[in-house]
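Methods: example folding runs. The two proteins below were folded one after another, and each record is reproduced exactly as written to the output file, sequence line first and structure-token line second.
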Amino acid sequence: MIEYFEQITQEEQDMLTEVIQTLLRQTYLLERRYDRRTGRMQYVKEYRTCSKHLEFLREYFAIAGITLKENAHMGVIYIQGGQVWAEKLSRLATIYLLVLKLIYDEQMASVSSSSHIVTTLGAINGKAGEFGVLKSLPSVTEMRRTIALLKKYQMIEPLEALEEIKEETRIIIYPCINAVLMGDEIRKLLATFGEEDNLGDETAIQSAFEDLSE
């Protein structure tokens, strides 16, 4: 494995190091991301690097008991095992993440032929309201902070500047939502949020995410 790494160019070594650090930080890589400047989905160089050296990276992560998987159809490469979410989530961020997964699955099951889905902030809040997990509409500041966090981890991409965020704001849901949350237990988890006010406050609910992604 070390021999393989030493045989590639310095530029490729640097790219591989960046790919490994990104996977350990956020657990997945997207094949394409939205570029607001061009208004199009653009290919991500880190994904190409990872795909090119996939077998090497699988052996590398296997040493730490981590599995590297690729879903070429969805355009996602992700790791499982170990800590799958490094940053603790607020209650609202956790609720939004669960709701985003539901919206993603519902639209993918209908007529979508794309690996990414577009929704609105209003639709997210409305879906959360259906489950009774929001007592009232969050403040603009709280929503902006939450959207910024999910954008940081490439879960979503708002199509407007965060300073202009409103209910009508369109939001891309990336397919990597499946690398964090999988399975039919999400509705049950949301129902639990509605029943117990103390769940999710500054907690990662990491064990729940890990159970769903197995």
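Second run, written to the same file directly after the first:
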Amino acid sequence: MKIAIIGGTGSIGKGFALRWGQKHQVIVGSREQEKARAKAAEYNGILKDYGFKADISGDVNEKAASEADVVLLAIRYGQIASTIEQIKPGLEGKIVISVVVPMEKDRCIIVPEGVPLEIPTNSREDYKADYFCYVTPPAGSAAQEIAPLLPERTELVSAFHNVPAAKLANLDIELNYDVGVCGNSMHSKNIVFGLVRDIPGMRPMDIGPIETSSMVESITPLLVNVAIRNHMKDVGIKFVD
């Protein structure tokens, strides 16, 4: 399978490229072609050192998307509209996976008793929280904001939100995480289930339709807060019964 990682030069993109590059043809996407190609060469070199003959290439986002079977959006929430506009012509009829999480620290405001809810902009610094929070998009989740921006025959799946980037990119570490998968088509979800299983130690969990994405996306800031406050690193999730 040919997988384009839009934002593939970032930390989470690196992890996916190294894990999927062992079995699939991966295209690292970036706004800058030279940067994409340099990172692709770096990832090929890492996998070669581990004994894998990888086929990772790099190109600008729009070309990467147009050449792939599956397109992974490993971008920041604020880049959604501009990135999809850039790659939209190459998304028709394909599966798009969103790992986007709208979380921030600066937007978390604690309002003490007696302070007006409408805090003046110049006073907001005094009320910022010291934890990360999920910033709920107007549509309900990042995935629900992405959905109407895609071509009609494109199938959207949201997944991999709670996978620690550092551990994903460290091939010396054995992973042991569950991955929540949300989507409206069992065809596309089954393909993503397979991509989850292609990463040793990962187990896919069907969460429901794309409307359930907010539940999974919002776990990420929770995990970050748990890690920071309890002196842990790269916290993930595992469901037990």
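Comment on the second run: DSSP finds nine helices and ten strands in the chain.
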